[in-house]
Amino acid sequence: MLRALAQPEGRAAMIYLELLLSYLKIGLFGFGGGYAMLPLIRHEVVERNGWLNGAQFTDIVAVSQMTPGPIGINSATYIGYTVTGNVWGAVIATVAVCLPSFALVLCVARVYARFSANRHVAGALAALRPATVGLIAAAALLLVNSENFIDWKSVLVFIAAFVLTQRFKLHPILTILLAGAAGMMIY
């Protein structure tokens, strides 16, 4: 897991480069937001590079959901730190995942204002909506199928949280705190 700490100096530098390239790729091809990025993040972190196992990745996703900010950026920060064992890994992964979006937004913003009324542009954007929903559904299925994720206790906590927020209009932060307390007591 903490490969950079256990490697000779030259290999540690390669870990940082691998982390940078992986998160640049995730940032460049991760369309649809954080949840839609999860399958790509999992592929890079668990399957391709073997930095984490499936259970560790699922734990990172859970923590990233509960911390303020976008899940893709939160997970990049946590994974970068976990892989390298220091803040520089977190900084590299976080900047790398944000950089492609930042550059694309700067370029597209100028063009979009000029061509937003064009029917071809409007059609292309409309076509991206269902693709994004599909990517989010794939992320949900990926998490459901990962090891150590769903058991009957987790289902009960989910149902309780759902009822508390939907039926009784409990504030989401209080629901998260109660679910965390329930998880600590159950597990």
Could you walk me through the main structural features you see in this protein, from its secondary elements to its overall organization?
The protein contains 9 helices and no strands. It folds into 2 domains: 3-149, no CATH class; 151-187, no CATH class. The two termini are 24 Å apart. Helix 2 (9-29) runs antiparallel to helix 5 (71-84), helix 3 (34-48) runs parallel beside helix 5 (71-84) and helix 3 crosses helix 7 (119-145). 82% of the residues lie in helices and 0% in strands. The chain has 187 residues and is an all-alpha fold. The protein has helices at 3-6, 9-29, 34-48, 54-66, 71-84, 87-115, 119-145, 152-166, 172-186. The radius of gyration is 19 Å and the shape is globular. The model is unreliable at 1-5 (pLDDT under 50).
